[in-house]
Amino acid sequence: MKRIGVVLGRREATPLEFWVGVEGDGLLRLDDLVVVEGFHPQVGQVRFFGMVDHVAKVHEGESFDTDTFLAVEGKLPVSLAYVAHVSVTRILPEEFFPPDPGSPVYLAQEEDLELALYYDAMRNQRGSTKLPAGLLKNGEVAYLNLEFLNGVKGGHVNISGISGVAAKTSYATFLLKSLLESGVLEDAHQARVLLFNVKGEDLFFLDKPNARLTEEARKAYARLGLPATPFQSVAFLAPPKKAGYLPDVDTRLEGVEAYHWDLVQFCQRGLLPFLFADRAAMTNLGFLVAHVTEKLKRLAEGQKGPHLQVEDWPGGEASEGMSFDQLGKARLKSFSDLVRYLEYKLLGPETGEGEGDRGWTARQAKGTLEAFVRRLRSSVENVAHLVRGDRPGSPPDPLSGKAQVHVVDLAKLSPQAQMFVVGSLLKDLFERKERGQYRGRVFIVLDELNKYAPREEESPIKDVLLDIAERGRSLGVILIGAQQTASEVERRVVGNAAIRVVGRLDAAEAERPEYRYLPTSFRQRALILPQGAVILHQPEIPVPLLVHFPFPAWATKREEVLEDNSAEALRREFFG
């Protein structure tokens, strides 16, 4: 062991914290881990493990600020004091008495490091549960206890930080890489990932090598026990263009499939509420949405898409492409047709004569019915290309197919359409897991949580996310959520995350109560964190860890795609 200093006697030492005087040319930095051996005749030898959370240097012998100039010139005798504050992380055995002043302090390395960070406790009957989560300042691997992530003892991850600086998505994908390919998650081959792409097309190249990957980054991956390779099994899905069926993408033109729901799926799965992103302020309108949703479910029962058959109604023939079967039932072939049909059922003929169908109106006031119809009409422009009756539906299905990671693009959709896609997918996935239709774990990566689960507002999507946060880990559904400001996200969503990660924070945000679990020094450091560094907090370790994670081995944009080093490219270069 390398001695670094001694426990100071001028400052109070307790079982939970003490000060260290660094001796000679010794170096002690923030986040360094140390170990001290104490002894008491009644209990024997005790070892104190701790982390440095404050370091300072001061001239002893100065009385005034200007004395420093005299000391530098050699005119005033002073001593340089190099001191560090240590927060105790563990005591073995658990005998809570303070270390003696003058006790030697050593840097914690190898086995001592593992004891200081409880790595020895990260085991179960099947073996190690140490999941690589990055690298510490000293180059050692930082681990998460997998059992606090896979649902055994806890679940969910929450990541906070300034957009574009905190690298929230980069760390989320790094965690996925560790989960799927470190070998720690024993049933990793059965795990599925639903990854929402919310900005640009950054995640559309997860399966391509990164041309900017350095040799240093490759060594970091090797140190972590991870392959420096892109993701091997990925499906990419994007919404169709509003005119046509092709996926609406710009940078990746191959290997992307368009997704949409047909009218029968929309009705059978009860997706209507997700068009009302904000739960209706009026209780009556919320009740009407639920009532119409159930009516549509019964209407679509037993039908097979894509179009929806309904009973005849006057004006149906006016819709382009509308047709009727031999029994006089109309075939709705677009979302616009469905909206017009509901308008007729709720408000009656367009002439204004008569009333709506009482079986559909649920005896609601005309103002409530009109508010409902207005909202539906306004949604046609946003979601008509996502809900259609002209071809069978092909919504994203992360629980089926061969691909392990499903990237679902939202970037070009309107806010209402984004809400609809996220809510519909999460509802379907969670219900299927509840019914036991898929046994493997499912990891959901969703950025901008403050939009989908806001603290103050209520919505059907927020209800689904709360269900996942509170009951998901027992079903093997794990949410890796991210946002710029945790203070704007529903408390129960953030509070149920066993693992919390913080990147660069805004100064005002860092002072919010949501970050009080971080010591003051860590909240201050969050203001200056560089990209590639995050603060990691997990239940088993009493102090946060500052960890660095390597540059992505997978391309994050088109210009990073490594293509010219392929065998085919080399063959073309030399042989034409």
TrEMBL record:
InterPro entries: P-loop_NTPase, T4SS_component. SUPFAM superfamilies: P-loop containing nucleoside triphosphate hydrolases (SSF52540). It comes from the Bacteria. This is ATPase. It comes from Thermus thermophilus (strain SG0.5JP17-16). The lineage of its organism: Bacteria, Thermotogati, Deinococcota, Deinococci, Thermales.
